[in-house]
Design goal:
By secondary structure, this protein is α+β, with helices and mostly antiparallel strands. The protein has eight helices and five strands, in the order H-E-H-E-H-H-E-H-E-H-E-H-H.
Length: 194
């Protein structure tokens, strides 16, 4: 299968940590120890946030240390994601706290800050030889209920899978066709300078 031609060439000096990151669906069932997972979450902890509010909360289930919790989390994904995410090592959900703790006022930056934490976790995963795949196809309401999350105070933002990359041939044919790094727009398309 050929990769679409587009701009995947980085500008000189950009770290390979960024352009070698991508979101596979083919995972190889492998044990991910709790110390490694803790480092991924700790990398997220160091992310910047408005008023240093750190509004992110990571809910995870590790297939090797708690298979039942992992299976429960797989069932909180939409069917299309369940078909491949079941082979990951960890399934998780990123939840954002909507209000500042210091004054109780709405935090308009919580989702942005959570996105920064997600990227930090993802880049640490690459350093550990792991891959992540973020998912919008999740059962938001059921996740909130499962984890006892108050939707007035917190928002379930996304799901994610973490693990070792697997063989694309294990995927359904339609997914195999998507199993390569996505193209990127040219810098000039996203950079509007004056």
């Amino acid at each position: 299968m050929s990769q679409p031609s587009s701009t995947r060439d980085p500008l000189e000096g950009v770290s390979s940590l960024f352009y070698e990151r991508w979101s596979p669906r083919a995972f190889s069932p492998a044990e991910l120890d709790d110390a490694t997972l803790a480092r991924l979450i700790d990398a997220a902890r160091w992310s910047p946030s408005c008023f240093n509010a750190q509004p992110w909360r990571f809910y995870t289930a590790n297939a090797s240390s708690n298979p039942k919790a992992f299976a429960d989390c797989v069932n909180l994904l939409l069917d299309g994601n369940q078909s491949w995410a079941k082979d990951a090592s960890v399934i998780g959900f990123l939840v954002g706290k909507k209000h500042f703790e210091h004054n109780g006022k709405p935090n308009p930056s919580y989702a942005l800050d959570c996105g920064a934490a997600w990227m930090s976790m993802t880049l640490q995963a690459r350093q550990e030889g792991l891959y992540t795949h973020g998912m919008a196809g999740i059962k938001h309401g059921e996740i909130a209920e499962h984890f006892g999350i108050d939707p007035e105070q917190h928002e379930v933002l996304m799901g994610f899978a973490i693990g070792k990359i697997g063989d694309a041939s294990q995927l359904d044919e339609g997914l195999q066709e998507k199993e390569f790094p996505s193209p990127r727009k040219p810098v000039d398309d996203i950079w509007l300078q004056r």
